[in-house]
Amino acid sequence: MSQFPWNYTNLFNGSFINANEIPWYYIPTWVSITSPIAVILLYLIGSIHIFRKTIQHINNRISLKIITVYILVFIPIDLWILFIIINSVFYDGWRHLFFLYPLIIIGSIYGIIYIRSIFPKNIMDRLVYALLVLILLSPIISIVKLHPYQHIYFNKLISKENNSIRQNWEIDYWGLSYKEGFEKLKIISKGNPIFVKIENSPGIDNCKLVDENKTNFVIVDSISDADYFITNYRFHPQEYNYNKIDSIYIQGSCILGIYKLKNN
């Protein structure tokens, strides 16, 4: 990925940083705030357990099973270190590394196995089941609540008040919320064509999906020619000084705003 420079910025902890100059803690931070906390803690426990077990048997023959597990569990850490060394480019959070998440889950499972091994069996059976319910139930509830915007999941390690997520982190960079926004605008237009200024290209694509016959919306380049302005706040997390008439809120942050520009 270092061979594919991207001359844009990522919103990271309230600041726009160059995508070609990502700090070493960029990936660990994103993984930590967008994964269930229980999964992260269990992964750390499982990783430490496997590492210690490997060190203890370093002078003995290590089974193929342990070697396989070791490789799988530590691939996320190894790749993170590699990306730091080669100064890799990342676009929009850590979406290019989502393929590593199943390996993090494997590490979490070994975390549960280790916890179970250090307590009496009758106590741990109940605790293991409780942990499994916690790990599985929390993400499922979040997915249901956030649908269709489950890709904007953030855990409790960060604030979700007063547009905090939008002002500090990348959110709906693919512009999925535009579809719902244009469906709202379509109702507002009552079948009459309206002039719309769209913030970025994902909005234009979603406009075409909602208005296939091109009878409801006329896309304009200048905001002075528009009746309405619609945005997912990409590269502009601050509020606009226009008359907001509708919006979509997820986890305490407005991920899409619809503004009326003219009083006609």
Q: What's this, in brief?
A:
The protein is an alpha/beta fold and 264 residues long. The chain has helices at 26-34, 37-56, 64-86, 101-117, 121-146, 164-168, 177-189, 201-210; strands spanning 9-12, 15-18, 194-198, 217-220, 228-231, 243-250, 253-260. Helices cover 47% and strands 14% of the residues.
Shape: elongated
Please indicate the count of domains: 2
Largest sheet: spatial strand order: 4-3-5-7-6
Average residue-wise pLDDT: 87
Report the count of strand segments. 7
Helix content: 40-55%
- Secondary structure class reads alpha/beta
Main sheet attributes: strand count, strand direction, barrel closure: 5 strands, mixed
Measure the end-to-end span: 49 Å
Please give a structural write-up.
With 264 residues, this protein is α/β, with parallel strands linked by helices. It folds into two domains: 150 residues, no CATH class; 90 residues, no CATH class. It has eight helices and seven strands; from the N terminus they run E-E-H-H-H-H-H-H-H-E-H-E-E-E-E. The strands form two sheets. Strands 4-3-5-7-6 form a five-stranded mixed sheet. Helix 2 crosses helix 3 and helix 2 crosses helix 4. It is elongated and about 75 Å long.
Question: Which secondary structure elements does this structure contain, and how are they paired or packed?
Answer:
Blueprint: E1 9-12, E2 15-18, H1 26-34, H2 37-56, H3 64-86, H4 101-117, H5 121-146, H6 164-168, H7 177-189, E3 194-198, H8 201-210, E4 217-220, E5 228-231, E6 243-250, E7 253-260
Parallel strand pairs: 3-4, 3-5
Antiparallel strand pairs: 1-2, 5-7, 6-7
Helix pairs in contact: 2-3, 2-4, 3-4, 4-5, 7-8
